[in-house]
Design brief:
Blueprint: H1 2-8, H2 35-41, E1 49-60, E2 63-74, E3 79-86, E4 91-98, E5 102-107, H3 117-130, E6 139-142, E7 146-153, E8 156-163, E9 168-175, E10 178-190, E11 193-203, E12 208-219
Antiparallel strand pairs: 1-2, 1-12, 2-3, 3-4, 4-5, 6-7, 7-8, 8-9, 9-10, 10-11, 11-12
Amino acid sequence: MQRFVVLCMFLILSACAPATPPQQLPENCRAEFSSSQLIANHWLLQPTVWRIRQTALLEIGRRKVAMEGFLRLDLQRQEARLLAMNDMGVVLFDLQVTKDGQQLHRVLPQLQQVNGLTQGVAQSLRQIFLVPQPRAHDQLENRGNSQRLWRTLPTGSLGFVFDCLGDLRETRQLAESGDWRVAYDRYRTFGLRRLPEQIVMNDYRHNVKLSLWLREVKQEP
């Protein structure tokens, strides 16, 4: 995943991917929602605009890089715009992403000529916030304290796990086109919606882990 190598520049990719602890789902309730209820309550499918201040930790093998970011997430237009900085406050890039394309508004000169930067970062934002998303005709699997919506892909499968409160806890794709997982944890209420305070994305094919912590969340009127 070239975009992560770009952001840490001179780090060397190790052979082993950083480990991710297993999720702790609530166990004192049963997950009994219908497919339509899960989709209707899914925070990433609401016509809402969020302004998010976040910190990030990039892990490539044993190497780690900390970053800060300001994200404007327009779920009605399916658009995300990220201003990313290093821990010294230097702007790395300003990137606008939609489900179909991206536009780089600003980039650190040292990164400007690196192939794959715009496409790589854009793809990560899409997978975490924009697409893929659960659909009404996905298969519903009940697991006691959790439920899974899933569908087959031409070369694999795609699934979404919800806990017994109806919160999305995992998106997992295992296919020829990509082997990756996004985990959503520590939900809390912002306004009328519940959002995760921690998001962890693992790209198993490229041995990379990206952790996001939502430090401040505001909803635009």
